[in-house]
Amino acid sequence: MRRIAVINQKGGVGKTTITTNLGHALALLGHRVTVIDLDPQGQLAASFGIFRPPSKGIDQVLLEGLDIESVRVSARDLVTLIPAGNRLHKVEELHEGGATRARLLQTALQEKLQDQAFVLYDCPPSSGMLVANAVFAADEVLIPVTGDYLSLNGLAKVMATLKKFEPFLEKPLRQWIELSRLIPRRRLAREVQAKVLEHFPGRVLATPIREAAVMAECPGAGRTIFEYRGSSRSAKEFNLLAQDVVERRTMQ
Ligand SMILES: Nc1ncnc2c1ncn2[C@@H]1O[C@H](COP(=O)(O)OP(=O)(O)OP(=O)(O)O)[C@@H](O)[C@H]1O
Ligand SMILES: [Mg+2]
What we know:
This is Chromosome partitioning protein. By secondary structure, the chain is of the alpha/beta class.
């Protein structure tokens, strides 16, 4: 099982979009996938077309010790969703007993979801307790980075957050960067891409996801790109990205 946390404290970079569509893409390649919504905004369920998700989800698992199996929802063939639940924001507010609180998810997942090939965590745009829980319960992180002016600054912050966790990790965390919402004809986007490659050689996944109107339309329709426009360039990109992840294929 590979557990991958999709993180970036910068908002709107494509974390939920990538969790949804990479999750479905991996399932279409035949892998069992569980996606876990660790964002109190709770948008992951809606991206899969579950517009009235159950009120109990990962929040009750973390706060009340509920068994994760009891809050599983089937989202697609081979895709299981663990919704956020109504009270997930309470976890972000937990400050007492920091270290233990940061390992709630890791503890809850012990010996669970063993039949899954991939577990993806959709994280909130923050670097608080929920992201700490994701990182401690992950083997890998996938950091979506967009091609705008502040993105490198954002990436430096993510790396600083990860450094802070490093001494407490049981094993090194594999870090992947994914170029997201890319507008290749923009000079700035190309410059950002070059800088990211220069600073993180061998860590940038091979297939960027381009900015595309269809991608922005998918969540409203409650469909993944494979259902919404299966023959689009974006669908091809997500299929390739899934292969990149499986084969650990990078740009360099
Ligand atoms: N490749 C893309 N092309 C066009 N629009 C996109 C693309 N990726 C994401 N979007 C749109 O951009 C917005 C933000 O994307 P998304 O919700 O995935 O980001 P996020 O990082 O999860 O945001 P947050 O930090 O708020 O959780 C959404 O409206 C989404 O539909
Ligand atoms: Mg999101």
